[in-house]
Amino acid sequence: MNLLIINGPNLNLLGTREPEIYGSQTFQEYFDDLQQKFDTVALSYYQSNIEGALIDKLHEARTNFDGVILNAAAYTHTSVAIADAIKAIEIPVIEVHISNTHSREAFRHKSYLSPVVKGVILGFGLKSYDLAIQSFL
User: Fold this and answer.
1) Active-site position among 22, 30, 45, 112
2) Domains of the chain
3) Quick one: average pLDDT of 89-99?
4) Is 22 a catalytic residue?
5) Closest CA to 134 of 100, 81, 105, 94
6) What digits encode the pLDDT tens for the residues 74-93?
7) For residues 98 and 124, what is the distance between their CA atoms, to the nearest angstrom?
8) Catalytic one among 30, 97, 112, 129?
């Protein structure tokens, strides 16, 4: 199994950004742990703060990966373009969020991605990614 994890804007700051919400571990540290835990899965990771770059990576994923785990971060609540890209690639995408977006500001309650993804996992901290990988297995 070949899976791609894509993280959107500001997730490059994990470990220092609002640790009370997102924890104190960097994503690279967590990704290294995931690779050890799921050693039979080929995991790749990409992060960008740019919407178009995330869309380009989703397009590339359609021929190179069995599935995508996507935390589009704030773009979840604003990007019809990312939702359209998910519909276009025809491989399963799991939407993940570190925090429970429904317990936060009202604008975070709406996801343009949820209607077009295979499933949604949110509110389990970084473990949300672990659960997404398990869902593919």
Assistant:
1) 22
2) 2-136 (3.40.50.9100)
3) 95
4) yes
5) 94
6) 999 999 999 999 999 999 99
7) 6
8) 97
